[in-house]
Amino acid sequence: MQIYWTKINNIVVETPEVTTFFLDCPEGFTWQEGSHTHFALKGFNAGDKPNRSLIRHMSISTLPNEKSIGITTRIKENCSEFKSILRDMSVGMEVAIFKTHSNVPLKREGKNVYLLSSGVGLATFRPLVLDYLNNADKVNKIHSLNIDSSKAYLFTDVFQSASDKKFTSQFVDNRNDYYKEVANLSADKDGLFYVVGSDEFLLQNIEVLINEGINPEQIMLDKHERQLAEFFVK
After folding, report:
1. What DSSP character marks residue 58?
2. What is the spatial distance between Cα 148 and Cα 117, in angstroms, rounded to a whole number?
3. What's the rounded Cα separation, in Å, for the pair 232 and 71?
4. Under CATH, what is the fold of the domain 111-230?
5. What is the DSSP-derived secondary structure letter of residue 127?
6. pLDDT per residue over 103-144, tens digit each?
7. How far apart are CA 179 and CA 135, in angstroms?
8. Which InterPro entries does the UniProt record give (predicted)?
9. Radius of gyration (Cα) for the chain, nearest Å?
């Protein structure tokens, strides 16, 4: 396993509770849209065993052509040790990234794509949308639906509808409206549905989609293949 040590080159406060840390791209480090990585703080590998409290599984919210690795995360006032250390970090400080992989690359199968997310889960979808806007080959259209009760919606510069690009973006602030819209979107029985959020959120979306006649094969989760059985009960 290769560990890439790199430096923070910029910190952007997206909303009062969400921050993006931009990292230098280490030589030889590559990723694709929908990628996640293990993001670790200094000292995580100082002992005989990795200190797991200093490691988090994070989505990369940028594309390689942006020349920076974006890690977008929610940091609340009362937070974990990891988040409290991260909150106090500054430009120039070192972090580590390793074991990078994408479970949700953009499928180009000539179908409509629906991106369903909760809050900061939108960070996983930002690169997919940018990839599509740069090249719409074999994707009919994309519709993004995000629920965030804080109403401090993320990445509104990217997630804005563009009819000429066949991209629509929708934000809602309550579950009732959100799940009504998921049911409406599932009228497309041939669509591809990507879901990102907490495990509870994933299970609720899967239940709605399957009840509406969507097949499990059409539902994409940011989970390793071995974890999928936990979400799709046969």
Report:
1. E
2. 9
3. 29
4. Rossmann fold (3.40.50)
5. H
6. 999 999 999 999 999 999 999 999 999 999 999 999 999 999
7. 30
8. FNR_nucleotide-bd, Riboflavin_synthase-like_b-brl
9. 18
